[in-house]
Amino acid sequence: MRLYPHVLAFLLALFLFPIATNRISHLKDKDSFRNGTLRCVISLDDSDNSLDRYATGFNYEILKAFGESHSDSVSVTLGDGIGEYLDSVLLGELDILVIPVSGYKDTAGVSSFAMVDTSVTWVFKSDKHRSRELARWFAKFRGTAEYSGMVRRFSLKDGMISPYDELFKVNAKTIGWDWRLLAALAWSESKFRIQARSPKGALGIMQMMPVTADRFGVRDPLDPEENIAAGTRYLAFLKGMLSRYTEDPETLTWLMIAAYNSGGGRALQDLEGKERSAATAAYTEAVLNRYISFGGKAAPALLRPDSLGGIDPGYEETGDQEEEHDDNE
Fold first, then answer.
1. Entry pTM
2. What is the rounded end-to-end Cα distance, in angstroms, of the chain?
3. Catalytic residue numbers?
4. Is residue 6 part of a domain?
5. How many domains does the chain have?
6. What is the SS3 assignment for 31?
7. Residue range 147-205, pLDDT digits in tens
8. Which of 66, 54, 56 shows the shortest CA–CA distance to 95?
9. What is the C-alpha separation between 261 and 197, in angstroms, rounded?
């Protein structure tokens, strides 16, 4: 008789356990932000002429932070437009779509969460669990030192040159450059926009072509840390190759900048006085003038007055030469 209570408790546990398990699983499934890979698309109009050219970079970092606390991994890609991506959100193929607030219209089946510090909204499939989780997370995240640091960097406070100054400082040391020179090269390539794309497919702050990016360890070309590090490793490669042809540090720096734009072979032709490229010379002059505007001190010999003389550091055409990168070095 004494066994009956134990048997009854055991049978009751067997009956209730599947119900409890299904309930937990059901609640987890409702919150898709916590399942597998967080799939995101950023589709913003933050071109060079817009007032907020760093909106893509800012939201990229917030998406990464959100995904790291809610998902196994995060996939962020660039989009062009809104309509087709809204369909993907409705079908559950896309978790978060980042678009301008001005471009969002109420749509059945989707919800939006406006980022209070920008004119941007995150769109996702309607679900009260997701809405509550996103709002709760962001309210907590805004109170962290990580978020306040992001706001400071992207607001360019305290005399900053770019949101990525610390990355330039760390990487410039590996090639013996003043970090402001590396920043000047990056500005000439992308104006510090992670979303910058060339007609031939170069992407990111350092405008890495796919083959070169893969060769120098880039997995996510939008990631500023990966992109800047890979661009610097490419410069180190060029430095090693070109240093065999000149012992003059100023000439070597000039050639490294030229080679980053047009390839090592063409830079050597310039060193030998053969087939000098006016576009490459203009690009190099623009980088060096931008370096001076950032507070650097370039030696007179670096400005190469025998090529094109002083170039306006804002010379627009030189910033569009990234498609000339030579992937066959």
1. 0.80
2. 86
3. 189
4. no
5. 2
6. coil
7. 999 999 999 988 899 999 999 999 999 999 999 999 999 999 999 999 999 888 899 99
8. 66
9. 15
